[in-house]
Amino acid sequence: MPSTVTSPPLSSPAQTTAPAPKTTTCNPLPTPIISSLPHNLQVRAYHPTDAPSCAHHANNRKIWINMTDMYPYPYTIESAQSWMKHTLDTTLWIRDELSPENAPLIQPNYAIIRNGECIGSIGLKPRKDIKRRGCEVGFWIGEEFWGRGYMVVVLKAFVEWVWRTFPALVRLDAEVIGWNKQSGRVLEKAGFMLEGVSRRSVFKDGRVVDEEIWALFREGV
After folding, report:
1. pLDDT digits 0-9 by tens, 94-125
2. H-type helices in the chain, by residue range?
3. Which residue among 14, 107, 201, 220 has its CA within the 20 to 30 Å range from the CA of 52?
4. 130 in a domain, yes or no?
5. Does the predicted TM-score (pTM) go above 0.85?
């Protein structure tokens, strides 16, 4: 079979073959943990290409004011890249208590994707010690998608994924700053119940405010 690469003829020693152009490769997009949702929504692990869209939607004071101080503002591309690096830290990944010790650790924080664009985030924060059968759930979504029901759709699907993936968990809860009524409505529509109010427990934006505790329990437990 003839070769697909030929050498220049001996009578033309000055001829050289141009070097092949350098190509760059990028890791493929992670497989979604949740797909086939209405409005072309998916939930998957972050990918480096998500940084610009993540920063675009996250850089919003109306989101920042409802988050813990871990959430930066302004929220730059560097902020997004730092957060994505944080989500890849396997020391923060979790394993279900009922799983074998050699079972793989599971990433707890994910990107909310619509039409290939990162528009928000959702994730878990494990409780510790005697509260280890529970997790805190947190989320945000870009302002242009507020009021469309997107966050309710994602949260409901995420809760179902959590119950399937972590059989030992019996409780999910969310801590909501008192003025953040919109997130309270999202939680309520997703099945969470207002469990109580922690009075004057949050200091944010120069103000001391209450915090609402919303909770959801595994059925049959």
Report:
1. 999 999 989 999 999 999 999 999 999 999 99
2. 51-58, 61-64, 77-87, 150-165, 181-189
3. 107
4. yes
5. yes
